[in-house]
Amino acid sequence: MPVQRSAPPAPSKPAPDSTRRSEKSRRAIYDAALSLVVEVGYPKTTIEGIAARAGVGKQTIYRWWSSKADVLMEAFLDLGEQSLREAGPVPYTFPDTGDLAADVKGVLRATVDQLRDPRFEAPSRALAAEGVVNEQLGRELVAKLMQPSLDLYMERLRAAQDAGQVRPDVDPRIALEFFISPLAQRWLQHTGPISYEYTDTLVDYALHGLAPR
Amino acid sequence: MPVQRSAPPAPSKPAPDSTRRSEKSRRAIYDAALSLVVEVGYPKTTIEGIAARAGVGKQTIYRWWSSKADVLMEAFLDLGEQSLREAGPVPYTFPDTGDLAADVKGVLRATVDQLRDPRFEAPSRALAAEGVVNEQLGRELVAKLMQPSLDLYMERLRAAQDAGQVRPDVDPRIALEFFISPLAQRWLQHTGPISYEYTDTLVDYALHGLAPR
Fold first, then answer.
1. Are B189 and A133 in contact (CB under 8 A)?
2. What InterPro entries does this protein map onto (chains A, B) (predicted)?
3. Which fold, A3-85?
């Protein structure tokens, strides 16, 4: 679900005061949702709890979102957009300089930075942990939070196939996992440290394989 | 911690009745721990709850284990050993037929079977989910439950390097992640289906790389 769709609908002739009020409520609701899921975990986070902490009525939340999962995922998307805006006017696309290795290394270094950002870490972990035991939520997290980046990886890999830099028989949906899954597992399961050097190495191994050439 | 070390210590001259009683208690405690963590989650699973469900005193548990994390990890290791025994007298080593691809494919197919075994799935997910938000537990899970297999992968990859099948400059600790991390992420985060065909493909891509040769 794109963020725009379930944000408060703009009235046809917006009354400045009520728009400001809506925007303020929306932000208070996002902040409350993110802080609650970190403090008490996903199962104990409720619409009632979010409303109480945000200082709004339950009905205000139900007017804009259908479930706590929806509120949380949009709060999380909003956090990502905030950080993108702070980083400058960078459009969210995958770089294509013609050098696949350099492009993927750059994207993975940005992912390393994001995984280490304390604002992201706690809510990301709380949502990811619940997704492990709650398949429906897990699938929603994939569809809403991960799929857009997976699509960009696939598009970049297809361009590399067209340019003769990746074998034509390789399935881009599987190939992208060599870039994202080792990093994801180290982060999720604490199986190893995360660094630029590590993700650079992943890219080199993935492109050239482990066997002698 | 090896399972044997914290199992009930065998008396120097075992009295058959008390040994049987201990073994029966140990099994009841394992079953109680695994079923509780699935039903109420890791944070609400307590030594008291495990004792009550197992029909033993709290002190019986504290005599053998120092924490609920210890009980759960050993219960889980025991489950793995049970399933190995059922599969026949297979020693837990990594096959080395000289064909690295075939050997890794075989091990990954067995992992696919285990990830799909309903006896494993619920407790594995409950422990893994808690490890995502609880770094100390996460690190214990890695050290006690995952490290033994990671070591076997590393040993097999080093043998392949000696045999000239893997480049000598490749770090086996990173290389093994191409085999285990994509599968782990699909399973943990519900990012895609798991099958023998999928893991076979991972092995081929990892060994030969994505770039044209």
1. no
2. Homeodomain-like_sf (IPR009057), HTH-type_TetR-like_transc_reg (IPR050109), HTH_TetR (IPR001647), Tet_transcr_reg_TetR-rel_C_sf (IPR036271), TetR_C (IPR011075)
3. Tetracycline Repressor; domain 2 (1.10.357)
C-alpha to C-alpha distance for B169 and B159, rounded to whole angstroms: 14
Q: What DSSP assignment string belongs to A52-96? A: HHHTS-HHHHHHH-SSHHHHHHHHHHHHHHHHHHHT-S--S----
**Chain B residues close to A211, C-beta within 8 Å:** 165-167, 207-209
Tokens of B77: 């290791």
Which ranges in chain B are annotated with CATH 1.10.357.10? 3-72, 93-208
Q: How far is A196 from A202, CA to CA, in rounded Å?
A: 10
CATH 1.10.357.10 in chain A, residues?
3-85, 93-208
Residues of A in contact with B175 (CB under 8 A): 205, 210
What is each CA distance from B44 to B24, B72, B126, in whole angstroms? 25, 13, 12
Q: A59: distance to nearest CA of chain B, Å?
A: 30
- Which pLDDT belongs to residue A11? 45
User: Which residues from A are below 8 Å from B177, CB to CB?
Assistant: 181-182, 185-186, 202
Interface test with A, best of B121, B132, B139, B170 (most A CBs within 10 A): B132
Contact B112, B194 (CB under 8 A): yes
Fold of B3-72: Tetracycline Repressor; domain 2 (1.10.357)
In B, minimum Cα distance to A212 occurs at B167
Query: Residue B126: closest CA among chain A residues belongs to which residue?
Result: A133
Under an 8 A CB cutoff, do A142 and B211 touch? no
- Rounded CA gap, A150 and A153, in Å? 5
Q: Which of B169, B210, B213 is the mutation pick for testing A, counting most A CBs within 10 A?
A: B210
Architecture of the domain whose range is A93-208:
Orthogonal Bundle (1.10)
With beta carbons under 8 A apart, name residues in chain B contacting A133.
41, 125-126, 129
Burial degree of B135 (CB within 10 A; 0-12, 13-18, 19+): exposed
| pLDDT tens digits for range B131-177 | 999 999 999 999 999 999 999 999 999 999 999 999 999 999 999 99
